[in-house]
Amino acid sequence: GDSVTQMEGPVTLSEEAFLTINCTYTATGYPSLFWYVQYPGEGLQLLLKATKADDKGSNKGFEATYRKETTSFHLEKGSVQVSDSAVYFCALNTDKLIFGTGTRLQVFP
Amino acid sequence: DAGVIQSPRHEVTEMGQEVTLRCKPISGHNSLFWYRQTMMRGLELLIYFNNNVPIDDSGMPEDRFSAKMPNASFSTLKIQPSEPRDSAVYFCASSPSLAGGEETQYFGPGTRLLVL
After folding, report:
1. Mean of the per-residue pLDDT values of chain A
2. What is the pLDDT of residues B6-65, one digit of tens each?
3. Cα–Cα distances in angstroms (integers) from residue B93 to residues A92, B23, B71, in the given order
């Protein structure tokens, strides 16, 4: 069946460091791909998405490119801030959202 | 827009009691989803509705769980009887439509359930 695999966390970085969170997927067909973010005590909110191969989603300095050849959708940010500390979920959607296990990011000043 | 509204935000109950969680989706959204989040199992889709009709309830863990959507602006998730292993955060989400998976889902703040 369809599935999403994310890198294990926590990821611990200093402010202004470069961030990569790896995400790969397995799916039949052509899913849409998403990154959601969950801040402490809150629900998930969409960070960015891409609906077809080679699309790049971007928001708040975060980017991810839909790579069909490597079945990947890695999340990147050039310079993280303390306020980016949260749990990040990669997800795919064919007829329903399937989430990865989440990656906790901790950014220290 | 108020976003997805869930109530209660916190619920503490004793084993064997009935628990009812409530959700009001974003106005105009036709699809509604119930999720459960635990440390052990992560995020699990329990059930989803489209135009108030249940489409897939294969994620509902057992017969103690039931969900209804009597109209476009209200849904309930009921656990009867509740057990300690049901302790989790339950999220409701809505989206404009199913639309082949392109639609964004908007999540509520969740209900944190503790069954003693």
Report:
1. 93
2. 999 999 999 999 999 999 999 999 999 999 999 888 899 999 999 999 999 999 988 999
3. 16, 9, 15
Q: Does B4 touch chain A (CB under 8 A)?
A: yes
Of A32, A94, A99, the CB nearest to B43: A99
Chain A interface, mutation test: which of B32, B34, B104, B112, most A Cβ atoms within 10 Å?
B104
DSSP code at position A67: B
Residue A51 token pair:
């609906």
Q: What is the pLDDT of residues A81-103, one digit of tens each?
A: 999 999 999 999 877 788 999 99
In chain A, which residue ranges form alpha helices assigned H by DSSP? none
**Measured between beta carbons, which residues in chain B are less than 8 angstroms from residue A31?**
101
**Interface contact A93-B101, CB threshold 8 A:** yes
CA A12, CA A108: separation in Å to the nearest integer?
8
b/e per residue A44-56 (b: at least 16 CB within 10 A): bebbbbbbeeeee
- Whether A102 sits inside 8 A of B101 (CB atoms) is no
The tokens 């404009």 sit on which residue? B96
In the three-class reduction of DSSP (H, G, I as helix; E, B as strand; rest coil), residue A83 is classed as helix
φ, ψ of residue A100 to 5 degrees: the values are -75, 180
Confidence check: pLDDT of A78 > 90:
yes
Beta carbon pairs, A and B, within 8 Å: 53
